[in-house]
Amino acid sequence: MNILVTIDKNYADVLVRMLKTLAASNKCDFDVYIAHSSLTFTELTYIQKKVDCSRIKMHPIKIPPQLFDGAHFTKRITKETYYRLLLFEYLPEYVDRILYLDPDIAVLNSVRLIYNMEFGDMIFAGAGHTRGVIKAFNRMRLGLGAHSDYINAGVLMINVENMRKYITADEIFTYISKKGKSLFQADQDVINALFKDKIISINPCFYNLDEATYRRNRLNLQWVRKNTVFVHYNGKNKPWKNNYRGELDVFWHEKREQIKNSAQFEAAV
Prior knowledge:
By secondary structure, the protein is α/β, with parallel strands linked by helices. The protein has 13 helices and nine strands.
């Protein structure tokens, strides 16, 4: 299975922990593509060594500057904004689908169902977090339909083959150049607006659970442990900080210990 992450050196340890939970919750092999612009060989080696799992193969991709020829930049729209949007330009041709994950995620269960989903002519599958006034505001400012969801871009199942078929870099550059001032959430806004007719909305309780969604749906930890695939620690509320608020941080620490024990077992065998 193909996984895409985009990080800098400040999130190396966070990525390591996410990948450990991925390996602990799945028995298959993973090709992890790391899109970056500044990671050194030493930093990439550190990530691979810390993950310490034979089923995860790293593929660092240093994003070339020429990829952004014709791109529009502002204080909010940086070159990193384009990493997810232009993945069809730098991923190998044989990659026809890929699962994008933010590093601040704990993987609790198998990703097989979402990874092998049917796309048809669609490009993205993602889950929304917003409700009520905020959701209505996002629909209005981005020109989304009355029944459109506004998905969070931290977890995206992506049909790369369809992306190559239906979009070009110039179309992305042109859209951002025209709409840049209204794109408060950078590439997340672009995905929701430019691809609004190519998005499959999926359930956040299973595929992108944050603390707000957890409380809103009155879930409990037992249900989450059994049913949720991705717990997403979005925003400033991070489980590796002492001031975490909520209950879901237990999975970040719990799964880290599980993969540590699993790795020791495999070494003994």
